[in-house]
């Protein structure tokens, strides 16, 4: 069974104002992600990546088409039971320590009391924040704050991670650490579906990618196949596909 299935998905935003045109963010998207895959969801700003993720999370209803997680339609809340999500922008109470933040989320997810501390220890180790667990998040570097967000998304031990631009705004070390976390999750058998503009990174960490442009799927495939077919790196493939060939 596929972990993530999107069939003919269309997402339109209707403005409440009379006469405003309908904005179509996703146009007939078909996508499949299998268990254990690291899948890179690429596309320029405004391509429809976040809109697609918002459908998977049940925040935005599909205008038409369907999306399923573990075979369950995303309109059913139970579909989200086994997923973790890191939004593009996180809004945490920065006066909390990482440990307090995770305790808060562990309660929200109703993780049994006896398991909470163990779970918190495990995710703090995984994201390398063990040493800073009793420091307020506001004292963290941007990379550490992002890793605190990742820890939060992992607290319920999800099978599928949906990460919206997890490396955006991070320095090379911060990006490397996030990349290592994604690789660690993969080695644990988790499925990771993430959007990114860091194509070099995507090339190293992803099994498969999809490139979305103006709401339409432009290409999809195994990274190794795409690199071989096009005979160049992912960045050049991306530029070619979205219609920006490099200068001669
Ligand atoms: N709530 C919204 N209302 C109206 N238009 C939106 C809304 N959210 C996104 N859009 C539009 O939908 C398109 C896709 O946006 P988005 O899914 O955020 O793209 P991406 O994440 O790839 O940058 C953009 O043109 C954006 O302006
Ligand atoms: Mg986005």
Structure description:
The chain has helices at residues 49-56, 98-108, 113-126, 142-154, 172-187, 199-205, 223-230, 234-241; strands at residues 4-13, 23-33, 38-42, 64-69, 72-73, 83-86, 160-164, 191-195, 208-213, 216-222. The chain has 248 residues and is an alpha/beta fold. The strands form two sheets. Strands 6-7-8-3-9-10 form a six-stranded mixed β-sheet, sandwiched between helices. The protein has a four-stranded antiparallel β-sheet with strand order 2-1-4-5, with helices on one face. A hairpin with a 2-residue loop joins strand 4 (64-69) and strand 5 (72-73). The N and C termini lie far apart (46 Å). The radius of gyration is 19 Å and the shape is globular. It has a domain at 1-82 and 191-248: Rossmann fold (3-Layer(aba) Sandwich), CATH 3.40.50. It contains eight helices and ten strands. Bound molecules: adenosine-5'-diphosphate (ADP) and magnesium ion. Adenosine-5'-diphosphate (ADP) binds at residues 13, 23, 25, 43, 45-51.
